[in-house]
Each structure stands twice: as structure tokens, then as C-alpha cells.
Amino acid sequence: MKSEWKNKISLKEILSGSIFTRGFFRKQYKLLALIALLTFIYIYNGFLSQGQQRRIKVLNEEIKEARYEMLELSSRYTQMTRPSAINQQLKEKGSKVHESVTPPTLVK
User: Fold this and answer.
1) Total structural domains in the chain?
2) How many other C-beta atoms are found inside a 10 Å radius of the C-beta of residue 97?
3) Is the residue at 72 inside a domain?
4) Domain-embedded: residue 92
5) What b-and-e string marks burial along 13-40, b requiring 16 or more CB atoms within 10 Å of the CB?
6) How would DSSP label each residue in the chain?
7) Residue whose C-alpha is closest to residue 39's, from 28, 49, 31
8) pLDDT in tens, 21-73
């Protein structure tokens, strides 16, 4: 009958904190402290990983924007270096340089 009384935990003991004076808690306080520490580390790790995921998302967006900018610049460069575009620019500037109409010959 006494053992049943000792095993019952009342709300009053929990709220007052006297539950921690029981034998189980006195014997297992190191284990409970370890569990609490591991719980805090687990929560911290979750917050840290969420922050890293947000950072990865931002960096992926920056990569996507840089890729589009690179494609745009590459396209612009390709258009500017076409022979017809070069000839047109030379004509606009009034240069006397023009495209040769005779094919190159090999000199031996």
C-alpha cells in the first residue's frame, strides 16, 4: 500500500517543484540534464539549418539573376562582333576600312 502512494504524482507536487525531491529524480538528475542539453542542441540545430536554407535560397536567386545577365551580355557581344555589325559601325563612323571582296591567296 505504501509503494502505491509513493508512485502517485499529484499536480501539487509538479507545480511546487517537490517532485524533484523524489528518489527517481535524485538518482537520474545527470541523465535528465543530458536530455535537456541534447534537446537544446537539437532545437538550436533546427534554427541554424533554417537560416542556412534561407541563405541558400537567396544565393540561388542571385545565381539565377547572374545567369540571365550573362546570357544577355553574351547575346549582345555576339551581335556586336558579327561581320555585318562591324561593317555597319565602320560605315556609321565614316571609316575607309571595308570588307574585302576578293578571297585571300596563299603566298609560297
Assistant:
1) 1
2) 9
3) yes
4) no
5) eeeeeeeeeeeeeeeeeeeeeeeeeeee
6) -HHHHHH---HHHHHHTGGGGSHHHHHSHHHHHHHHHHHHHHHHHHHHHHHHHHHHHHHHHHHHHHHHHHHHHHHHHHHHTSHHHHHHHHHHHT-------SPP----
7) 31
8) 777 777 888 998 999 999 999 999 999 999 999 999 999 999 999 999 999 99
Nearest alpha-carbon partner for 22 in 39, 35, 34, 8: 8
Total Cβ atoms within 10 A of residue 75: 10
The answer to whether residue 23 sits within a structural domain is yes
Residue 1 forms part of a structural domain: no
Rounded to two decimals, the pTM is 0.55
Cβ atoms 51, 59 nearer than 8 A: no
Range of the domain at 21: 11-80
